[in-house]
Amino acid sequence: MDFEIDKSQKQIQKAVKDFVKGEFKKEVIQELTEKNSFPTALWKASAELGFIGIDFPEEYEGEGLGIFEKVLIAEELCRADSSVGGCLVRASFGAEIILNYGTDEQKKTWLPKIATGQKLACRAYQESNVPYDSLDINTTADKTESSWIINGTKNYVVNAGELAGYYAVLCRTTTADNKSGRAAASTILVEADRDGIEVSDMGKRIGGRLLSIGTVKFNNVQVPLENLIGKMNQGFAQVSAGMDEIMVLSAAQSVGIAQGAFDRAFAHVKQREQFSQKLSEFQVTQQKIADMATQITAARTMAYQAALTLKKGQGDRKLCAMAKYFASRASVNVCDEAIQLFGGYGYIEEYEVERFFRDAKLNNLFDGTELVQKQMIANALMKR
After folding, report:
1. What pLDDT digit, counting tens, does each position of 73-101 carry?
2. Nearest alpha-carbon partner for 80 in 125, 113, 39
3. Which residue range(s) make up the domain with 301?
4. Does the model's pTM come out above 0.85?
5. Do 270 and 248 sit in the same domain of this protein?
6. Among 173, 334, 343, 381, which has the minimal tally of Cβ within 10 Å of its Cβ?
7. How far apart are CA 151 and CA 220, in angstroms?
8. Which parts of the chain have pLDDT scores under 70?
9. Domain total in the chain
């Protein structure tokens, strides 16, 4: 498969590199990380340059491009900084379901706000002890003559809180004549400022500390019937269809984080001396950096290949899962090795690689753990 990046894509990469060089100031990021604050100013600045909604149609303030360009942006943002980059990449997570299944009115109302950095998108799918592929979800949407009444609790909702525009909520949809049956699931758009919504932080985390990750409770939240996204009882199919893109973008973030940690460690070993020699001159160091570089290249190749299949409309669930699984594991490995190359300095916040390691682990767990990815791969192989 040809991974040659064309001229316009190289220009996008350069634009992101110029952006992070000018805007990702070390003192700014240090202040954000000390306060665990979402990078609001950097989010809005990246939106102004078109990075957030690059895959949205131009009529919705997007650039009309695709998943491969989005992967390139995600990689460069996370290479520059694992924490800020992760926030910017995930700013539109939850917009894909509106883009793919929403009504014209839903798209017209929300996609421009996401693309221009006015609001964050939110996916509210996950519940405690309930997998995505289970019809046993507890959040319900009762249909009345004029509205949906939503009750339930969603966990691990990224972007939950005051900057959220809406929650795309996966619900067990019930009707007046089918409240006790094994109802299917639907996805319903719930505006974040609706009465009856309560958001609480999930708690202190190892990584991803700049992200707002919350528990969202819906207590008799009433929304119009037209807030249904796509067709009724198609929620699981919609969520499943969007998983390929999410896995590929997660893989791209992992590649960027790994590359960023490698860049910092490589620069360190080239200038740090021990026993009157640069660390880079020791064979053991050279072996380590060779292994790190190989893992990054392999992960990038898999992420690009998966993105290109999606771009061509030939998405391969197995390949997307492989890319996410391998890249997230490689990222953790590379970041761990980067800390080793720094020695004791690697454990100090100032040198950043410890934070890259923590953020790498978040990507390793979010959007499907390693076991989830392996099961997807195995299922695809067994079917074949």
Report:
1. 999 999 999 999 999 999 999 999 999 99
2. 39
3. 237-383
4. yes
5. yes
6. 381
7. 5
8. 1-3, 129-136, 175-183, 273, 384
9. 3
